[in-house]
Amino acid sequence: MTFLKRLRGVGDPTHVALTFDDGPDRQATPQLLDLLASRGVTATFFLIGIQVRDDPGLAKEIAAAGHEIAVHGWEHRCLLYRSPRATHQDIAAAHELIGEVIGAPLQWYRPPYGVLTWPAYSAARRLGLTPVLWTAWGRDWSARATPTSVFRTVTRSLRGGGTVLLHDSDRFASPGSWRSMLGAVPLLLDECERRGLTVGPLGEHGLV
Q1: Segment holding 69, helix H or strand E
Q2: Is residue 15 annotated as part of the catalytic site, yes or no?
Q3: What's the rounded mean pLDDT across residues 104-118?
């Protein structure tokens, strides 16, 4: 597999990796966990350090439900405007706290806004993390998003072997936007089933 395919999250052509950024969030995440449990699906959650600091118990709940935990940084700030040192500190602080709370090794890193700078890539690799972005997203952070619009936007780019990006928090998005994500997930799971694609976390996606 080429580097760029791995970075974009292109894996097993019979599988779709389902990923969620920006949590955990006390409003959105528990409802999402219930939905995924009802469908027998697990996913990868890219957590923000300050979100885990504020609600470590919810991060533990995600892991206890069988989902894969990954790192999205300490703060949701674009790394283009951060020094190499600040970038490393951001990723390292999140990696340390999330690892301590979960009590398990962490494998994946996704930069905020998908902006992977060279200092961020280097810092992630030194910490033993593999950077991964996505191939399809739902623009679910928008104030104008609806479950239907999120579903349609995702499925325009949905292919076997792809990685889907959604968000289980509105802390860094339009208030209440997570509701559009929540309404779109069952539609997405139904579509993947219709296409004969299995859905799961990055760890089952054949990237490494």
Answers
A1: strand 68-71
A2: no
A3: 97
